[in-house]
Design goal:
two-stranded antiparallel ribbon; about 400 residues; binds 1,4-dihydronicotinamide adenine dinucleotide; alpha/beta; 12 helices
Amino acid sequence: MIIAPKTRGFICITSHPDGCAQSVSNQIDYIKSKGKIEGAKKVLVIGASTGFGLASRITSAFGSEASTIGVFFEKPPSEGRTASSGWYNTAAFEKAAHKEGLYAKSINGDAFSHAIKDETLALIKADLGQIDMLVYSLASPVRTHPDTGVRYKSTLKPIGEKYTNKTVDFHTGEVKEISIEPCTEEDITNTVAVMGGQDWEMWINALKKENLLSPNFKTIAYSYIGPKLTEPVYRKGTIGKAKDHLEQTAFTITDSLKELNGKAYVSVNKALVTQSSSAIPVIPLYISLLYKVMKANCVQEGCIEQIQRLYAERLFVEETPTDDEGRIRVDDWEMREDIQEQVTKLWEQATTETLPSIGDLEGYKTEFFNLFGFNFDEIDYTADTNEVVVIPSLES
Ligand code: NAI
């Protein structure tokens, strides 16, 4: 079929297999160009098909020659209907990994469920024996608790008072004001239940119970802080409460890993265009200004550059540097004082008319469509393309 982008709100409901393969191949090339990382060798990535999780899987496999198991929740293709991009990304990843003799298997399903945890544990037991790292990079709007069956929905709301600020519809370029009503107590509970650390801890406990964690085991999850500008809707909002919980969970997990000399980390990463961040009000405008400033200062990074730096300069060095609250920081360039000063100035000037010149709206859009395999120069989008692509390890 001929595959073109079809957007609905902040998501794209089609994706291009060859474009996704191009994106994966570009990330692999980047990792290879940076040289070997003495990292973990048997790695489980939860949320492995897009964004930071995919970048982590690629960095482990192609930077450290790791065997990887990836867990994700993606829509497979059918005749005349494209898969979700994470499906195509994984198909391309596995093919590239297998070509180099690297072990790579995947599990598609709800990582919050007992069934998917059991399936993953059985696969580790059968194929790898133990793992030496777990990357937890899940981003989801909902979670059904596996014990109670309660379904929680996360929200992106301010706490305490209504928040009004500018935002951009990045498809039309229109900058307008939005107001978000404050959350209820229940919104906080629900968001923490979905995006907090409980499921991360459940994974670790399940693996530990079955003796599937090796000595010196490491686990890492990703967090975000961001600037004052977005604080009410992000770090001091409902999602920020979930991130507080996730960060606290790292300490609980570290305590539980004492006998293995294991350690749990949280890395605070930079703001990037991913399927999850496009859904957060205000953030797309902030990102388009941030990209402009970071590019002008030659410090712009994407997911793969962030994770490469995280592994090579933070995680797999003799002593992992952390901030006062024990977090790894690879948002250091985003949060540089001079960068934030420039972004704040631009924020005040941002209107529908000025944004195309003062912000990187084009860069935002390109990266957004790249997430779904579109807008790659190397791909002929007029060509007939086979949408029914299989993920080798899921073919049965
Ligand atoms: P993403 O949307 O690109 O990736 C989410 C991943 O989770 C995908 O692999 C998806 O298949 C998987 N997933 C979702 N629901 C699932 C379920 N029920 N079961 C199994 N897999 C499921 O997200 P992104 O942006 O890479 O986020 C990953 C982490 O990084 C999140 O914790 C996020 O808060 C954090 N982060 C994101 C930043 C950003 O600007 N995008 C900045 C800093 C941290």
